[in-house]
User: Fold this.
Amino acid sequence: MAEEEMEEQQAENESKKGKKSGLKWIIIIFVVIMLGVGGGFAGWKYYQTRLSAPEKKVEEVVEEPGVWAMDPIIVNLMDDNGERYLKTTIQIEVSSQECAAELDRLKPKVTDNILVLLSSKRYKEIAGFEGKQNLRDEIAVRLNRYLSKGQVRRIYFTEFLIQ
Assistant:
C-alpha cells in the first residue's frame, strides 16, 4: 500500500508539474508576443519620426484670384469710315482680390485705355481666333502697367460682337 500511495503522489506531482510547466509556457509565449508588439510599435514610431522624409510645412500666402468685370464697351472700328462697330464685354482675371480693388480705383483710366485700344483696331485685326488672342495679350500688357498690387492673369471676352 505504501507503494501505491507513493505512485499516486508521484502521479499528482507530475500532473502539478505539467500544469506548472504549461502555465510557464503560456506566460513565456505571452511575454514574447508583447515584446514583439512593443518592438514593432517602437520601430514604427522611430521610422515615422526619423527615417521617413518629413514634410516641410512651408506657409505660402496663396492669394485667391479674383475676376473683375467691366461694363459692356461699344466702339467704332477704324475701317469703312467708322461704319463697323464692336460691342464687347470683358472679364479680367487678376492675381488677388487686392488687385481687383486697385482696378476699381483705376476704372476710369482702365476703361479709357481699353476704349482707345479697341477703337484703333480694324476688322481684319480682330476677326479671327489669333486676332482675339493678340487683343487679349495687348489688353493684359496695358493693364499690368497700371497695377502695383498684383497682375492681370487672363482676359475673357464674355461678349464679342462685330457688325
